[in-house]
Design brief:
By secondary structure, the chain is of the alpha/beta class. It has helices spanning 2-10, 12-15, 22-28, 30-46, 50-64, 179-188, 202-230, and strands at residues 67-68, 73-74, 79-80, 87-88, 93-94, 99-100, 105-107, 119-120, 125-126, 131-133, 137-138, 143-144, 149-150, 159-161, 166-168.
């Protein structure tokens, strides 16, 4: 048990560049306080001293702002960064070397007894504000993006973003936008291709498909118009409205704008 406690403390140096020395970690890191108390509460829970385990877990929540049910099973070298608002349910299972950020919920979707909380594999990172709900399995080395809501199983070695959670494809799997799509985007006043460099944005990918469909319809309409002209039917030339006039201007100065970073790269404060 003491070996695990030592591992929980020393792993902070690997995951938080702000950590300077052991005394600072022991005295000022609520995530460490919460996991140390949970180790003791879980031991009491396993030995059927459950009222005391629940009472001490309530005290830990009051002290740290982190709620961990004493029945939750947590692996080695677990780290909660910042910690405020983290909730871990009774039947949650967390593997080794996992990291949770503030506002994370490992919750249930049912009032039925039995397994109702998620299981996290090894080396999983869950970003700030993410909700992982239900008796689902999150595979090893998975990354859950900030504020994502995950309701289904997640395979190993992937990144999940959005509401509901979607797996982000690797850049090698993403089709680059065609010249026709780019021209159509400019024509209707929308740029869907400047979001990121190294990952696909699910919204941008959906817009790509829409632009491809619009381009095909545009070509078909032009062909129909040409045939009507050959038949002597008069047509009225219509201009496509410039949608740029409806864009919301950014209040951020150009010098302060930053290129979007790869999802799953969780920055430290």
């Amino acid at each position: 048990m003491f070996t695990r406690l030592r591992e929980d403390i020393t792993c902070v140096f690997d995951r938080d560049p702000a950590a300077r020395h052991m005394l600072e970690i022991l005295t000022t890191y609520p995530g460490i306080h919460a996991i140390l108390m949970h180790r003791m509460d879980h031991w009491l829970w396993q030995h059927k001293i459950r009222w005391l385990a629940k009472f001490l877990s309530m005290f830990a929540r009051w002290l740290t702002g982190i709620e961990i049910h004493p029945g939750a099973v947590i692996g080695r070298r677990f780290f909660i960064d910042h910690g405020m608002g983290v909730v871990i349910g009774e039947t949650a299972v967390i593997g080794d070397d996992c990291t949770l950020y503030h506002g994370v919920t490992l919750g249930g979707t049912s009032w039925q007894k039995g397994k109702r909380h998620p299981t996290l594999g090894d080396n999983v990172i869950v970003g700030a504000g993410a909700k992982v709900l239900g008796p689902i399995l999150i595979g090893d080395n998975a990354r859950i993006g900030a504020n994502a809501v995950v309701l289904k199983d997640v395979p190993s070695d992937v990144t999940v973003v959005g509401v509901p959670g979607n797996i982000v494809k690797k850049s090698t799997q993403v089709k680059a936008p065609t010249q026709q799509q780019i021209e159509m985007a400019k024509k209707i006043g929308f740029d869907a291709y400047g979001t990121t460099k190294d990952m696909s944005d699910p919204v941008a990918q959906a817009i790509n498909c829409m632009l491809e469909h619009i381009h095909a319809m545009d070509k078909q309409m032009e062909a129909m118009g040409h045939h009507l002209q050959e038949l002597g039917v008069e047509q009225q030339d219509l201009e496509i409205p410039d949608l740029r006039q409806y864009e919301i201007e950014s209040t951020t100065p150009e010098s302060e704008k930053e290129t979007a970073t790869e999802t799953g790269n969780f920055e430290k404060n």
